[in-house]
Amino acid sequence: MAELSTLARPYAKAAFAYAQQASHLGGWSAALETAAAVSQNEKVRELLDNPQLTSEERADKFLSICSDELGEHGKNFIRLLAENHRLQLLPEISELFEELKAQAEATLEVEVVSAHALSDAQAQALGQKLRAKFEREIHLHSSVDESLLGGAIIRAGDTVIDGSVRGRLAKLAEAMNS
Fold first, then answer.
1. Average pLDDT for the chain
2. 95: Cβ contacts below 8 Å, ≥ 6 apart
3. What would the pLDDT profile of 113-152 be if each residue is shown by its tens digit?
4. What PANTHER family does the record tag this protein with (predicted)?
5. Under 8 Å CB-to-CB from 169, ≥6 apart: which residues?
6. All domains in the chain, ordered by first residue
7. Full-model pTM
């Protein structure tokens, strides 16, 4: 997995630099997300792995599927990826682009999995505390997992905060067994 990120990083950085210079981060974000979704389709993967097709033919077939969602620069980007045999990296490129965009916009996507649904007041209070902790604008997404018994697990970038009862019980059991 690290290898794919390493290969995708220069393309994501180049796309980001261009999009930022053109003040079109949102459009590029949507275009890369669409292209990444198309590239993960089983039939499209077969097409991309077909050794009988030239790079140009792969690009043309790929663009015939999603060219309406891509601008001229996006189409050129797809052609460049095809020429360098990197179309399969589109999901990683899109993900890295989103990380660069979030850093530039000082935003952070936060996933909260709790035992019970968060009230609006709880979500707002949690968002404010996370905003102060990470010094970024927080986009909070919450879901419910009743197996947690109580509490919540918060995933913010590389940080995971396990405040669930299940997690605390696991830590207690581990401490008792040590």
1. 88
2. 12, 36
3. 998 898 999 989 988 998 898 888 888 899 998 888 888 8
4. ATP SYNTHASE DELTA CHAIN
5. 149
6. 2-102 (1.10.520.20), 107-177 (3.40.30)
7. 0.67
